[in-house]
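W.,

You were right to be curious about this one. When I first looked at the sequence I had no strong expectations either way, so I just let the prediction run and decided to look at it fresh. Below is the sequence, 171 residues in total, followed by the output.
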Amino acid sequence: MGIIENVSVPDHYPCISGSATSKSLSGISPYFNRLCPPDGFEANVLSDRANFHGINSVAIAVENGDAYSEDLASSFQSAFGSGVTATVNFDIEDPDYLSKINQLLTGNPEGLFISMLNPAAFIKFFDMLEPVNTTFILCDGLNSSSLFQANITQILGEINGHTKNFGAFPS
């Protein structure tokens, strides 16, 4: 936002972003263009994929304090609607991390939407997540060279004929 407001708009310099997904950037300036869809579009695609796979209930794990993670989780919740069983915010240094995972899994959701950008958040999440009989719906926030420090058997494979993950993973 700062580059657009301080450089593109006043000085009429074009600005092109390959990763700006926030809906707040839509229509901000004729000098700004993005090469990727906004969060709402990605959330709709992931919601459609969940429906395609016959997933009727999803719990959302979201990294607290990260604008991208929060916006994508909110957009997914809107797109998926009443099938969202719980939305739980996770802080990296939260002492109640395990109880929050249990809260997330209450009601045995068929899927988990994991909206976390920071590797310290999502690796801790996967490390603490007990193997559960659910399908993961991951967002492309899981983009990191350290992603595979997480327990890979929790991320890859199949459950009841459905893949454990789908969507943009990792970009």
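Here's what jumped out at me. The helical segments are 2-11, 39-52, 67-80, 97-105, 119-128. And, maybe more interesting for your project: The radius of gyration is 17 Å.

Coffee later to discuss?

I.
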